[in-house]
Specification:
Elements (H helix, E strand, L loop, with lengths): L13 H18 L16 H14 L15 H11 L5 H5 L5 H11 L2 H12 L5 E4 L19 E5 L2 E12 L6 E8 L6 E8 L5 E5 L12 E12 L10 H37 L1 E2 L2 E2 L4 H28 L6 H30 L6 H11 L6 H19 L2
Parallel strand pairs: 1-4, 2-4
Antiparallel strand pairs: 2-3, 3-7, 4-5, 6-7, 8-9
Helix pairs in contact: 1-3, 3-7, 5-6, 5-7, 7-8, 7-9, 7-10, 8-9, 9-10, 9-11
GO molecular function, one term: flavin adenine dinucleotide binding
Cofactor: FAD
Family: Belongs to the acyl-CoA dehydrogenase family.
Length: 402
């Protein structure tokens, strides 16, 4: 039985199982062969041409944006886990099926906070897979802006008649280059609207300038992770997402499930990396027997199997909490830390088992290793989540001992 063909002990619906199994077949049979396709940009990510071609095949196969139904409703988080894990069986799978960050998280946010007009104008083009999006929140450290501490946000917005004017800088904005939809966070000091605000904007816009797109260790996300200058960006007031001053609350609506979605997709990649490593270890011989028969190798792969199951259990547990209607910030922080660390060990073991081949681009194993390393930082570094959890422990202790 493969790692993706497990008994249904998590309450996954029959609908989600049918969707997920269809996605798995599509990713394995149609998308995995594209892993050798040379159409990559100078950062190593799939070009828009390649993404468009794969998405045409996803539409034809009926697996485009499979976690969002035709009526706009989303699968439950437990059901989403079943589908997104399978979309992640190739690093290209989430791109092809439109389950990739940041679009997946942005669609979730718009679906839960956006009004009908904003959904029609901005969400529909994302769900169809016709456009990509970017989420403008993180700011440069050399500017003293917001990173893991959003209260440090220095990008500001001010009212001007029936518009808001935004000025500031952003960094590590995933997918900004080539995106058609942007969600911009800025801080308001206006009386009655103090706090963070979110705005939807059409991209590109001359007031949003891409200063650089640095090369990074990961290469799975088109558009890279850009540094941005925003200068006198005028946004109609009706393009504010939700209410003024509520931006940080909306960010949590997005970030808790988005962290978990990362875990789902990268678990799929590590399942595939384990399959490749096991196949290699069973075929490659050294000292007159297959590598897997050497304890040093076989035990690493055995530990990987254990860790894959632990990661899966953590993902489904957190998904079930989110399905109760709880924002699940504590649970998503725990899942992000635990799953990222487990997957890092799994990916590292796969590279080690495969030796020289493991560090080449002959398989996806080396890419999975790089992507997981970046994942331990994105959507909050491990240390920030642990610090947040420690604060909650201290608060609970004070309450218990008051």
């Amino acid at each position: 039985m493969s790692e993706t063909a497990q008994p249904n002990i998590f309450g996954v619906s029959d609908k989600a199982k049918a969707i997920g199994d269809k996605v798995e077949a599509f990713v394995r049979e149609t998308i995995a062969p594209y892993e050798r396709d040379p159409r990559r940009d100078h950062h190593g990510a799939a070009t828009d041409e390649l993404v468009a071609e794969m998405r045409e095949k996803a539409r034809a196969a009926g697996v485009m944006t499979p976690h969002i139904m035709d009526d706009g409703s989303h699968l439950s988080q437990v059901d989403t886990a079943y589908v997104l894990i399978r979309s992640g069986l190739s690093p290209l799978g989430p791109l092809a099926c439109n389950t990739m960050a940041p679009d997946e998280g942005n669609m979730y946010l718009l679906g839960h906070v956006g009004n009908d007009e904003l959904k029609r104008r901005f969400l529909d083009q994302l769900v169809s897979g016709e456009s990509r999006s970017a989420f403008f929140m993180t700011e440069p450290a050399d500017w003293g802006g917001a990173g893991s501490d959003p209260s440090m946000m220095k990008t500001i917005c001010k009212r001007d008649g029936n518009h808001w004017v935004v000025n500031g800088r952003k960094t590590f904005i995933t997918g900004a280059q080539g995106a058609k939809v942007g969600i911009v966070m800025a801080k308001s000091e206006e009386e009655g609207a103090e706090g963070a605000c979110m705005f939807l904007v059409d991209l590109p816009d001359p007031a949003i300038r891409i200063d650089e797109v640095p090369n990074t260790i990961d290469t799975s996300m088109p558009g890279g992770h850009a540094t941005i200058t925003i200068e006198n960006l005028r946004i109609p007031a009706d393009q504010m997402l939700g209410e003024a001053g509520e931006g940080f609350k909306y960010a949590q609506v997005r970030l808790s499930p988005a962290r978990l979605s990362h875990c789902m997709r990268w678990l799929g990649c590590c399942i595939r990396a384990q399959e490749i490593a096991v196949d290699y270890a069973c075929r490659r011989e050294a000292f007159k027997k297959p590598l897997i028969d050497h304890e040093g190798v076989g035990f690493m792969l055995a530990q990987n199997k254990i860790d894959l199951k632990q990661a899966e259990l953590m993902i489904y547990w957190c998904a079930s909490v989110l399905d109760t209607g709880n924002l699940g910030t504590t649970e998503s922080s725990m899942a992000k830390v635990a799953v990222a660390d487990l997957l890092m060990t799994i990916a590292d073991n796969c590279v080690q088992v495969m030796g020289g081949t493991g560090v080449t681009d002959r398989t996806i194993v080396e890419q999975v290793f790089r992507e997981i390393r970046a994942f331990r930082i994105y959507d909050g570094p491990t240390e920030v989540h642990k610090w947040s959890l420690a604060k909650k422990l201290k608060k609970g202790w004070k309450v218990a001992n008051a």
